[in-house]
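Practice problem 4.
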């Protein structure tokens, strides 16, 4: 039978459904096996591709949701200001002026001037707190200053030409006894003349941003020496930052050659923590006091610097200052910022795990009443992490200070496992 006849026969048999029956058994088995093997290979290759992709592929990051945490606040306080003149308070280590009362325009400052005089002189001729400094010989001009100031009813201490005092002794008589004649002597010794001293003082005031303070003389007897309460509080801080000045203004009394025993004009010194700084008395200025008072708040010492200008006399002024300080103590508050364990964020994974970002420690800050507090929270992107992992921070800003508290996970975010990965190929 030829090839053409065979093809015709197969075609006819196929038409009537008999052709497959004529196919050899071995041939049919072979084809079935090939199909099965091919299918298995496809499945196997798919598995080899799918399993690594799903088991090893990175999962989506956890979603970080912010929690509502109240911003800390400090309460306000009412300060018992005197009903006259001008007043203000600040504190060492606290920026700026904390509170003011009364007038805000410049007023005569009387002998508070001498703090400026001493600081300007020490700026040119520094002196360590425990050093005597150079010897200074009094001249006939210095002796004549005694009579000039005495004639003006100013506070003076005796002097004679040829008297030798150290720089420290000259500072003592100026700040403790408040002798006007020695204040001019001190300025002229350092700069050559009263005029030269005033020029230097003007520059010093500008350098220290005391723009509302004006000097017309070195002693304070000129009513043209004026300042604001705010400027004077900043001046008081500068005075206390100088160890020599701080030591002198806290001295109750001392004895000097020729001059003898002198007593500090500040009657509050040593009372209720008062440790300076300078009195002032003038008809145009009234009774004035630039003061420093150390108080304790939650076992933390705070040096308050304050001033009251325009009192009737020093007795009533001192009573007003003590009342002012008694009311101001409540203004210094230890504000809790955060407690350890406080949650700020919660992390949620696609496989239904939860972990919170919590504060790692307690933190508080000592502030003046009404100081605003701001907080800013930052977090890191996470997929998996163990409990205790640092995941960000909360940053508090208050009164010029920045306090940062780390945040950590309170529980683990673990891997979802192979079953979840296989059943969630797209994470």
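Answer key:
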């Amino acid at each position: 039978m030829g090839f053409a006849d065979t093809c015709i026969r197969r075609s006819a048999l196929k038409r009537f459904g008999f052709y497959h029956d004529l196919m050899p058994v071995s041939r049919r088995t072979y084809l079935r096996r090939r199909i099965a093997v091919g299918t298995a290979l496809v499945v196997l290759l798919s598995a080899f591709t799918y399993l690594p992709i799903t088991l090893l592929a990175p999962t989506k990051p956890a979603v970080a949701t912010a929690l509502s945490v109240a911003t800390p606040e400090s309460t306000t306080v009412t300060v018992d200001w005197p009903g006259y003149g001008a007043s203000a308070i600040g504190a060492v280590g606290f920026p700026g002026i904390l509170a003011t009362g009364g007038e805000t325009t410049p007023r005569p400052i009387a002998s508070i001037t001498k703090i400026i005089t001493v600081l300007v002189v020490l700026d040119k001729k520094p002196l360590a707190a425990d050093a005597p400094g150079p010897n200074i010989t009094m001249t006939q001009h210095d002796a004549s200053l005694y009579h000039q100031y005495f004639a003006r009813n100013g506070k003076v201490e005796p002097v004679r030409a040829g008297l030798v005092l150290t720089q420290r002794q000259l500072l003592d008589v100026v700040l403790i006894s408040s002798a006007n004649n020695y204040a001019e002597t001190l300025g002229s010794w350092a700069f050559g003349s009263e005029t030269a001293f005033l020029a230097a003082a003007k520059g010093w005031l500008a350098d220290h941003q005391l723009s509302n303070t004006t000097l017309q003389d070195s002693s304070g007897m000129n009513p043209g020496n004026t300042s604001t309460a705010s400027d004077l509080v900043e001046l008081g801080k500068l005075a206390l930052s100088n160890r020599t000045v701080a030591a002198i203004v806290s001295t109750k009394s001392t004895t000097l050659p020729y001059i003898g025993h002198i007593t500090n004009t500040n009657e509050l010194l040593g009372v209720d923590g008062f440790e300076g700084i300078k009195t002032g008395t003038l008809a145009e200025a009234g009774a004035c006091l630039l003061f420093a008072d150390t108080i304790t708040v939650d076992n933390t010492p705070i040096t308050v610097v304050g001033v009251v200008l325009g009192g009737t006399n020093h007795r009533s002024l001192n009573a007003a200052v003590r009342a002012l300080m008694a009311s101001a103590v409540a203004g210094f508050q230890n504000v809790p910022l955060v407690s350890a364990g406080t949650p700020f964020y919660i992390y949620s994974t696609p496989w239904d795990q939860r972990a919170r970002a919590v504060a790692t420690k307690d933190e508080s800050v000592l502030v003046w009443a009404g100081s605003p507090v701001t907080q800013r929270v930052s977090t890191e992107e996470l997929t998996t992490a163990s409990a205790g992992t640092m995941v960000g921070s909360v940053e508090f800003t208050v009164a010029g200070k920045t306090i940062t508290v780390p945040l950590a996970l309170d529980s683990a975010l673990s891997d979802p496992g192979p079953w979840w990965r296989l059943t969630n190929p797209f994470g």
